[in-house]
Design goal:
alpha+beta, Membrane-bound Lytic Murein Transglycosylase D, Chain A, Immunoglobulin-like, 5-stranded antiparallel β-sheet, 4-stranded mixed β-sheet
Length: 247
């Protein structure tokens, strides 16, 4: 009969040592792999100066908007217009209208001429260029504030019977002008009808026409005013109220 061989102790020890070696190697491999962790993150590139400059140049820039200048108010001269009449209609001083347009002669107007019309705010605030226009005529002073102060302010359209007229302005109290006279040194005399001039203006036209509250008509068929003449305004008592040398 056969017999069973008993395991040799040396063989057992060898097997045990091999087992321990394999386990150690396996454990070292596992721990080495775990110790490495996750791979480092990929670095994000930072923009260079050139890239930032391109981005800045592509951004829209903000520019300040300048408010448009207000359009000036103008008036186009029509046939028969005078500076005095235009100033009255527009409600501005004659001197202010002349200064705003660089005019020195109130009679120097042309049909179609465009005038700049200054506002009362500009005139009162001094933003409009206004140079006082020296008055050519004279008026008799009166100490009473209630007394009328009627003076000759100019002549329009010298020698043109259709438009020739003497401009008068009352800057004082109410003037009852019936019997007043407008005359020259050559015997031409205009006697005022029953007419009341309040604080304001009136034009005495040389030609024939129908009287109104701002226009009186002499009734002549030829123009009489010319450069160098002196116009005299007298009240009903014959007292000189104003004189005007025609330039």
């Amino acid at each position: 009969m056969g017999s069973v061989r008993r395991a040799n102790s040396r063989a057992y020890l060898g097997f045990l040592g091999l087992n321990i070696f394999v386990s150690a190697v396996t454990a070292w491999a596992v721990f080495s792999w775990m110790g490495q962790g996750e791979p480092p993150p990929t670095p994000v590139p930072t923009p260079t100066v050139d890239v930032l400059a391109r981005l800045a140049s592509s951004m829209p820039t903000t520019t300040s908007t300048v408010a448009p200048s207000p359009t000036p108010v103008t008036y186009t001269v029509q046939p028969g217009d005078t500076l005095f009449d235009i100033a009255i209609r527009l409600g501005i001083p004659l001197d202010g209208l002349m200064a705003a347009n660089g005019l020195t002669d109130p009679d120097a107007l042309a049909v179609g001429q465009v005038l700049v019309v200054p506002s009362l705010e500009e005139l009162s605030s001094g933003t409009a260029s206004v140079t006082p226009h020296p008055a050519l005529g004279s008026a008799t002073p009166n100490a009473s504030p209630q007394a009328p102060r009627v003076e000759i302010r100019g002549v329009d359209a010298l020698g043109d019977i259709a438009h020739e007229a003497v401009r008068l302005l009352n800057s004082g109290g109410v003037a009852s002008m019936a019997g007043w006279r407008l005359e020259d040194s050559q015997g031409h005399i205009f006697i005022f009808p029953a007419f009341t001039l309040y604080n304001g203006a009136v034009s005495v036209h040389t030609r024939v026409g129908e009287n109104t509250v701002i226009d009186l008509f002499w009734g002549l068929t030829e123009a009489i005013w010319e450069s160098g003449k002196v116009i005299t305004l007298r009240d009903s008592n014959g007292t000189v109220q104003s004189t005007f040398p025609i330039p």
